[in-house]
Amino acid sequence: MNILFDRLFDTQKNKKVFIKYLENKESLTYDRFLQEIKTSARYLQELGLKCEDRLAVQISKSHHVLTIYGACVQLGIIFIPLNTSYTHSEVDYFLTDSQCKLFVCRPEMEKEIIQNGKERNFITKNITSDYEGSFFKIMEKLTPLDFVEKRQENDIGAILYTSGTTGRSKGAMLTHKNLLSNAETLSNSWQFTESDVLLHALPIYHTHGLFVATNIVLITGCQMIFLKNFNSEEVIKALPDSTVMMGVPTFYTRLLKEKQFTKNLVGEMRLFISGSAPLLSETHQEFERVTGHQILERYGMTETNMITSNPYDGDRRAGTVGLALSEVNVRIVSLDGNNLFLKPNEIGVIEVKGPNVFAGYWQMPEKTKEEFRNDGFFITGDMGYLDENNYLTIVGRNKDLIITGGLNVYPKEIESTIDQIQEIEESAVIGVEHPDFGEGIIAVIIEKKDENVNNSKLIKHLKLNLASFKIPKKIIKKNNLPRNSMGKVQKNLLRDEFKYIFKGN
After folding, report:
1. How many CB atoms lie within 10 A of CB 83?
2. What are the boundaries of each domain within the chain?
3. For the whole model, what pTM was predicted?
4. CATH topology identical between 1-17+28-150 and 402-497
5. What pLDDT does 117 receive?
6. CATH architecture assigned to 402-497
């Protein structure tokens, strides 16, 4: 038995359309998709991959990512999707840490790996931007593999790397049960049926676009319009043929700027969902005014999948992320961890327990132990409160996390990279409210005495070492950083000082 494969993939043996491509009006049926999965599984076997081996993917958004994901589930291989913006140095860490057996990537990344000359214990195959490459060369000669590896619900299905406060990423291990429970719960909560058409403009290298959006489509057997990325014009073209859209706040703020985005345009839509970053109340209200729809905001994280959601039927409260999902327990704990039973509206640390919560961090047993209470609750590091009706409101983060454009960024990693510049004494990286990205990254730098840092040189250095979404939108020079009596930088004071810096953007 392989419950994840059986529920997501092996039941869809029909001619019904799975994916529609807007740009060329082509489509992919469920039965064709399943055959591609099984042929890919045969190929992975031929390459020598076995159950519990790790396979990493970093290619442009296409259904081939989903095909490889399905083949991994079929064979019990652990799937590792990587952000397409990650640089070679970042990717090198993920491949080494995960002890990856196969890396499927773009030709340019494969070239960098080969030129690096470092001894490798993994195979590389490439897929080009027009969906050709070495990964497909043998595929045409292979027959689909019907064998399905037996997997238990607590076996690891995927590893998602999330930034750590030390600057090094941690691999969150998601089980088959984690992935399946969230797909089942969310499809029921949001009342998905096989008649739905999901407008998919999200990336598919993280939980939102892959394990939420795609898994819901697969488990319900509905369709999705598959856009390569978010483009307002393309989304507007697709909306009349869609019933549901999932996005981040940036999607909705950009749509509201378009004259064509009207109530008539979304007449066939039944649901707009937002997550991955806080949705401003102003955006929620303006969206309802323009379209007549209330955006449904939910809350989740890499380690937990989805935790809460505003109700489909019921009061969708702007500024909140809704109620705990079925079988998920949410509690608010005092910052010192001594009081597990805070009263309604008392702010504390958000903790969660349920079938959605990950199994731990890859090869980090001590870190895993630190993040869990003895009673099994995971400490999210987010701060918030539950009201009298158990609606959750997030007010900030205990952990030094920035969420920009729906992507998680930890300042320590950027600071460490900035501090490599010889002319810089120290730096502090913060996030403040941004009208488009939720939070915009600011780097505050202190130059060494008699030194003058060239901002262009600094940005160039950062782009060579960090993904594009981690690059600060503003660089500010100061003479010193605010500190408390213990010498710790008071980032809250910096946030207050620069909180209006993106106003008017």
Report:
1. 18
2. 1-17+28-150, 402-497
3. 0.84
4. no
5. 61
6. 2-Layer Sandwich (3.30)
